[in-house]
Write a structure and sequence with these properties.
Helix 3 links the parallel strand 4 and strand 5. The chain is globular. The chain has four helices and five strands, in the order ββαβαβαβα. By secondary structure, the protein is of the alpha/beta class. Helix 1 packs parallel to helix 2. The relative contact order is 0.18. The longest helix has 16 residues.
Length: 111
């Protein structure tokens, strides 16, 4: 898994490429989020357009990002959620706590 971060105004876009699963991918994602928060980046847009699979640990990492940014007065929103992950978010009712967008500009403007 590869993670790339880019700034667009006050929003930091976290682009994930690969599966967000238990082990190194999950650890890398959490470390990236922690580093961003330490640097004062609290408004995060997680782009999942190149993620094909998320397990329960990956879901937990996304929820953790949301709660940690909220604690710091920011937000975590999701972008480009594929049909498989969208269904998982619906089943787990996490779609009610995450704002989910398909359009990057619209997502950035929502912060």
């Amino acid at each position: 898994m590869h993670i790339e971060t880019t700034a667009q105004g006050r929003v930091t876009i976290v682009s994930v490429d690969g599966d967000l699963i238990l082990g190194k991918p999950e650890v890398n994602f959490k470390q990236t989020i922690d580093e961003l928060l330490e640097q004062g980046h609290v408004d995060l847009l997680v782009d999942l357009g190149r993620v094909s699979y998320v397990d329960s640990s990956g879901l937990g990492a996304l929820v953790r990002a949301l709660t940690e940014t909220n604690k710091e007065g920011g937000q975590t929103k999701l972008l480009n959620v594929g049909p498989r992950l969208r269904k998982l978010l619906e089943i787990t009712k996490l779609n009610s706590i995450f704002e989910i967008y398909d359009d990057r500009e619209q997502a950035v403007a929502s912060f």
